[in-house]
Amino acid sequence: MEIFWYLLITLVLIIFFILDGYDFGTGIIHLFLAKKEKDKEVIAKAAGLFWDSNEVWFVAAGGMLFMAFPTYYASVFSGFYLPLIIVLWLIIFRAIGLELRAQFPYEMWKNIWDKAFGVSSLLLALFFGIALGNIVRGVNLGGFENGVSAYEAHYFFLPLWNSSFSPLAENPGVIDWFTIIIGIISVVTLSLHGANWIILKTNASINQQLKKLVFKLSIVQAILTFFSLFIWFKVNPNCFNNFLDKPYLVVFPLIYFTGLVGLILVKKHQNFSRNFIFSSLLIFGGIASSLASIFPVILPSTNNVNAPLTIYNTSTTNYGLSVALNWAIVGIILMIAYFIIQKRLRKGKIDEMDYGH
Amino acid sequence: MEDMIFYDRLQFAFTITFHYIFPQLTMGLSLIIVYFKWKYLRNKTEKYNDAAKFFMKIFAINFTMGVVTGIPMEFQFGTNWAKFSELTGGIIGQTLAMEGMFSFFLESSFLALFLFGEKLMGQKLHFLTGFLVFLGSWASGYFILATNAWMQHPVGYEILDNGKFVLTHFSELFKNPWLLPAFLHNQAASLVTSSFVVASIGTFYVLRKKHIEFGKLFLKTGVIFGLISTLAVAFPTGDWNAKNVAKYQPATFAAMEGIFETEHAGSEIVLVGQPNMVEKKLDNKIAVPNVLSFLTYQEWDKQILGMDKFKKEELPDNIPALYYSYHIMVGLGTIFIGIMALAVFFLWRKKLFTIKPLLWTIMFLVPFPYIANITGWYVAELGRQPYLVYGLLRTKEGISPTVSSGNTLFTLLGFVALYMLLGLLFLVLVGKTIHQGPKPQNH
Asked: Looking at chain A, which terminus has fewer C-beta neighbours within 10 angstroms, N or C?
C-alpha cells in the first residue's frame, strides 16, 4: 500500500514538473532571449494561460503526501524551512508577474513584471534542482553533532549553506557544490523544455534561434549529466547499487537517455511536438532515476546513528491509506479529464487563438 | 519557546486572514454568477449575461489571489506546525488532499473555460461551466470546514501509543456534528460578503450615473441576496453553531459570551461591555437577563457555566480577543440585517434608487462583511485555544521542533511585505475592472 501511494504521489509530482516545468523554462527563455514586444507578449502567454491549471498538480501532490506520509511531510517541510518559504514567495512572484503584465499598456510596467516572471522562473528551476540534490544526498537527520542528536531522529534543520559548501560535511547545507550542480542541470533541462514548448505553441520570431539553442543545450545537458554522475559517485559510492540489485530499475535511466539522445538528434528531424516529448522524457527519467536510486528510502541520513526516512517508517496506517485509495482513484480520473478538456480548448498556436483579451 | 509559539501563531493568523479575504468573496459570488447566467438562459436579456461575465472577471482576480495565498497555507502545516502534521496528518491530510483534488482542480479548469470558451461552447454548456465553478468553490469550503470541524470536535480517530492520531472511521469525518452547521454558516456569511460587494458596485454605478442599467440590476440583486443571506447567517445557522459551541466547548462558550461568573439561574446576554481580566468581570456592561439561557436552551432559567467553573488551562488563552471578535461579528450581523431589510423595503416601494443616504451607506458598507467574516473565524480559532485538536492536542505541542523563532520572524516579515504588495495590486486590478464596467468600450 505504501508503494502504491509512493508511486502515485511521485507520478503526480513528475506530471507537475513536466507541465509547470515548461512554464519555468518559458520564463527563463523569456528572461534571456525575448527582445521584441510581440515575442515577449506571446511567450509570456505561453506560460500565463496555463500556470494555474498546472500548479494544481503541485497542490494535489502536496495534499496526498501530507495524508499518506505525514511524518515525512512534517520532517522535510520543517527541515527545509527557509528554502521552502523562499520557493513559496517565488511562486507568488511568478504568478503576479504573469497576471499583471497585460493589465496596463506601459512599457515600463510590462518590463517590471516580465522580469518578475523571468527571474522567479529561473530561481524556481534552480531551487527545485537543489531540492532534488538534497533529497538524494540526504540530510543530517536528528541534527547529530559531537555524538549527540539535537532532535528526535526523524527531524532535522538545514541552514541555507555552511561555510565549506561541501556535501560531505557533518552538517551539510541546502546549497553545496553537489546540489548546485543538480540545480544547474535542472535549469538547463527546464530551459530545453521551455524552448520546445515555445516552438510548439507559438509563432515567435525567435523560434529558429530556439531550435539551434535546443541542440546546443542538449549537448551541454549531456556533458553535465556525465559530470554529475561522476560527482554523485564521489559523494556517495553506493549510489548505483539499487540499479545493480534491481536491474528493472534501469528502465528510468534509459528513459532519460532516450530523451537526451532524441534532443541531440534535433537537427535530423523537424517534428517539434516530438521534441517536447523528448524533453518530457528527460524530466520524467531524471526525477524517476534519482528517486529510484535511493528507494525505498525517501530521505537518506548523512550520519550512521539515525536511520533514514523510508516509505515504511513515515506512512500513516493501512486503514488510512486504503480508504483514501477510493477517492484518490476517482480524483485522478477527474484530474486527467479536466486536463484533457483544458488542453483541447487551447490547442494550436497561441498567437492564432482568439481569446478576446 | 514562548516567542516561537507566538511567531508561529502570528504568521498563521496573518497569512490565513489575508488569504480569507479572497475565498469568502469567490464562494458567494460564484452562486450569484450562476443566478445571473440562469436568468439569461431563461429570458435571453443580454444584460444578465454581461453581468455574469463581469462578475466572473472579478471572481478570476480573487481566485488568482486565493490560489497564490492558499498554497502557503498548505505548506505551513509542514513548515511551522510539523509536530501537528506528523501527529494528525493521517486524518486531516485526507480532507485537505481531497480539497486539492476535487475542488481546486474543478474550479481552476472550469473558470478558464467560462472566461474563454463562451463562443466555442454555446450557452447551455457555458452555464454548466459556471455551475461547476460554483460547485468547485463550495466543495473547497466543505473540505476545509471538514478539516476544521475535526480539529474543533475530533471524531473517527484512535490515538496510538506514540501519540499519533490515526483514522478509524472515514465516514465519521463527514458525519461530524460540527461540520454541517459550520459549513452552512460559513457559506451564508460568504454570500453576505459577495452580495454586499455586488450591491456596492451597483450603488457606485448608480451614484456615478455610469452604467446605470447595470447599477440598478446589481443593486437590486445585491440587496435581495443580501437580506436572505444576512438572515440565514443569524438564523438558523448562527444559532445552530452557538448551540454546538455550548454543547462541545462550554469553556469557549463562557469566554466568548463574557460570562465570568456562573449565575444561579438563567444567564444574561451581554450586548456591550469590556472584559476586565484583572478583576474578572465586565466593565460598563449592558446586558439583558435570562436571554442567553433562552437562546441556547429555550429555557429562561437554565444555568450556563461561567469561566469560574473551568481551570485556567482549559480556558482560551486570549479571552478579550475572543470576546470582542464574537461581539463584533454578532453586532455587525445585526446591523446588516437592519440595513438590508430597509433597502429591500424601499426596493419594494420602488424608491431605493433615489434615497441617497441609504445608497451611500450601502456603497461604503463593503469592508464590514469582510470584518464580520474574519472575526467569525477568529471566534472559531481563538475559541479552540489552547488546543489544536480540541481537548487532545495543545497548540504548544504542535509547532516544528527544529525551526527557530528567528527564522519564523524573518518569514513572517517577508509575508507581510509581499502581501502588502499583493493587496495593493489586487485593489488596482479590481478598481480597473470596476472602472471599465460590464461593457468595456474598446475591446
From this structure: C
| pLDDT on residue B373 | 97
Measured between CA atoms, how close is B386 to chain A, in angstroms?
Answer: 21
Q: What is the pLDDT of residue B29?
A: 96
pLDDT in tens, B408-431: 999 999 999 999 999 999 999 999
- All 3 cell numbers of residue B216? 440598478
Question: Mean pLDDT across the stretch B127-137?
Answer: 94
Test B98 with A74 for CB contact under 8 angstroms: no
Between CA B267 and CA A99 the distance in angstroms is 54
Nearest by Cα to A353 from B59, B117, B127: B117
> Which of B85, B422, B428 shows the shortest C-beta gap to A70?
B85
pLDDT in tens, A65-95: 999 999 999 999 999 999 999 999 999 999 8
Nearest to A338 among B77, B109, B403 (CB): B109
Quote the minimal CA–CA distance from A218 to chain B in Å: 33
Rounded Cα distance, A272 and B61, in Å: 34
- Substitution target in A78, A89, A335 with the highest count of B β-carbons within 10 Å is A78
DSSP letter for each residue of B194-232: HHHHHHHHHHHHHHHTSSHHHHHHHHHHHHHHHHHHHHH
Q: How many CB atoms lie within 10 A of CB B259?
A: 24
Amino acid at B53: K
Q: Do B79 and A155 touch (CB under 8 A)?
A: no
- Domain range list for chain B: 1-176+404-428, 235-397
- State the count of interchain CB pairs (< 8 A) between A and B: 204
CA distance A15 to A57: 7
What percent of chain B shows pLDDT beyond 90?
76
Please report residues of A whose CB lies closer than 8 A to that of B93. Answer: 63-64, 66-68, 70, 73, 316
